[in-house]
Amino acid sequence: MNAVIEARGLSKVFHTTVRRPGLGGALRSLVSPERVAKVAVRDVDFRVGKGELLALLGPNGAGKSTTIKMLTGILTPTSGEALVAGVVPHRDRERNAHNIGAVFGQRTQLWWDLPARESFAILRDIYGVPEARYRERIDEFDGLLELSEFWDTRVRHLSLGQRVRCDLAASLLHDPPVVFLDEPTIGMDVVVKEQVRRFLRHQVEERERTVLLTTHDMTEVARLAERVVLINHGRIVLDGPLQEIRRRFGGTWQIRATLADPADVQEIERQEQLTGGDGPDSPHSPGGRPGPDGPHSPGAPHGGQRDLSSLPGFAGIGVLRREGPRVVFGPVGDGAPSVHEALKVVIGRFQVTDLALEENDLEDVMRSAYLSDMPGQQHSSSSSAAVTSASQGG
Ligand SMILES: Nc1ncnc2c1ncn2[C@@H]1O[C@H](COP(=O)(O)OP(=O)(O)OP(=O)(O)O)[C@@H](O)[C@H]1O
């Protein structure tokens, strides 16, 4: 992959002065200030290719904004290197500014007392955008974000959703190949969020921009990101496709199917007997929906019980429950496929008359992923996702 954004061993340590409690403590702090080092980002490596949207995810205080600030040149890394469109951001801020657009959801780059139209004209002049190009882009952005209805309103009077739409358009006026978005849709209503997501998809798919996005909104992640980097305590704990994260931390899907062919039902019965299953709907069968803790949760089939792995293509797929021809398939073990892969296998092998899917909510998946990043926990490695075991950072 030809990387457009590259972080190599990127680290940032903040040094802050702590105030001791009480009046005596305050006086002592004045005379001999106590300095503490906070490692916000440690040894972070990732690459993002042209036309790729990567979601940088992690709990509060994980180090996402600090990483973005180093990649935009706002902060200088303590060690390691950032390279964005061939430029080291903090060393060549001017060239970097021409290559990137950035939106920090909580702040604006527009002039508070000017109407949006005038802010845009100033940015056009700063970046030297030719008039014809400027018109073209404004038309494109207006078509996607409906800016003209508040074009002449002072920025200070815009609603949050209107202001962020303006900020998004403003950040792309100079046609940068790289865009950084730090929680761009925070506080927006669902309609505006969807509009912004369509806009971002357009920028990635049609304009081949490279986008690095942080968000706590899992719907956003599901709609926009194919690949995610998960950061916790300043370290990368996982870098891989969203499907891989679902598989690893949220292997709790179910496929409910009614088999049309009695021969298929017999085949399943045979497999159940072969793998030492307790038979359909025994008191020992897993019963309800597996828990949110992944394949090893108490509800998931385990230890080969009702495992269908010996059927071609069924590795990692088992029977959770069965009542005659009505079968509930679910994941078995660490190598379980995603619900979409499993669905292909099930309908490829069996004729079904009735089908329903249930997949774990992405919020639950991410909660499991965040919680799994505890000292002493090891993630097993995988072919399609680079996984690093992380210890708790300071
Ligand atoms: N200027 C600073 N001085 C000292 N510590 C800082 C500074 N900026 C950030 N930190 C600390 O670095 C850590 C990472 O913060 P950062 O803002 O990067 O997290 P984040 O993942 O973006 O969190 P959130 O999702 O809450 O925005 C936090 O512990 C934070 O307190």
From TrEMBL:
<feature type="domain" description="ABC transporter">
    <location>
        <begin position="18"/>
        <end position="258"/>
    </location>
</feature>
<dbReference type="InterPro" id="IPR003439">
    <property type="entry name" value="ABC_transporter-like_ATP-bd"/>
</dbReference>
<feature type="region of interest" description="Disordered">
    <location>
        <begin position="373"/>
        <end position="394"/>
    </location>
</feature>
<feature type="compositionally biased region" description="Low complexity">
    <location>
        <begin position="380"/>
        <end position="394"/>
    </location>
</feature>
<dbReference type="InterPro" id="IPR050763">
    <property type="entry name" value="ABC_transporter_ATP-binding"/>
</dbReference>
<keyword id="KW-0547">Nucleotide-binding</keyword>
<dbReference type="GO" id="GO:0005524">
    <property type="term" value="F:ATP binding"/>
</dbReference>
<keyword id="KW-0046">Antibiotic resistance</keyword>
<dbReference type="InterPro" id="IPR027417">
    <property type="entry name" value="P-loop_NTPase"/>
</dbReference>
<dbReference type="InterPro" id="IPR003593">
    <property type="entry name" value="AAA+_ATPase"/>
</dbReference>
<keyword id="KW-0813">Transport</keyword>
<dbReference type="Pfam" id="PF00005">
    <property type="entry name" value="ABC_tran"/>
</dbReference>
<feature type="region of interest" description="Disordered">
    <location>
        <begin position="260"/>
        <end position="312"/>
    </location>
</feature>
<protein>
    <submittedName>
        <fullName>ATP-binding cassette domain-containing protein</fullName>
    </submittedName>
</protein>
<keyword id="KW-0067">ATP-binding</keyword>
